[in-house]
Specification:
The chain is mainly beta. Helix content is 6%, strand content 52%. The chain contains 1 helix and 10 strands. The protein has one helix at 104-110; strands at 8-13, 16-19, 21-22, 25-26, 31-38, 44-49, 55-58, 61-65, 76-85, 88-98. It is elongated and about 50 Å long.
């Protein structure tokens, strides 16, 4: 049983890494955006930019929360990762994840 006052670690995103190409050529300086959602209703947003080879990475995100102790609360997270290119947003990844623990299959996909 969850304690009403205990805090828990909620895993929102693994470390991610990727490479953005257009017609086989790297896109340099493109803004990568990551939005993470959890049932605590706090929007978490971070950005990075691609390097000269079109590569980017972002760190794993974990938060400390009391939310698992909320009665009748369904534990899930949402991840949205995309790029802003030529004033248009392109979604690269979007998913809802059950629970608050890392899922190895998703960790591999985002690595």
């Amino acid at each position: 049983m969850f304690s009403l006052f205990k805090k828990y670690d909620a895993h929102l995103s693994p470390e991610i890494a990727g490479k953005i190409l257009l017609n086989g050529k790297p896109l340099v300086g493109v803004k990568i955006e990551r939005e993470l959602y959890y049932i605590d209703e706090k929007k978490r947003f971070d950005t990075t930019f691609t390097d000269e080879q079109g590569c980017f990475s972002m760190p794993a995100v974990n938060v400390r929360t009391k939310a698992p102790s909320w009665n009748f609360a369904e534990q899930f997270t949402k991840q949205v990762i995309g790029i802003n290119y030529q004033n248009k947003f392109y979604e690269l990844w979007s998913t809802f994840l059950p629970g608050i623990q890392p899922i190895e299959a998703y960790n591999k996909k985002l690595a």
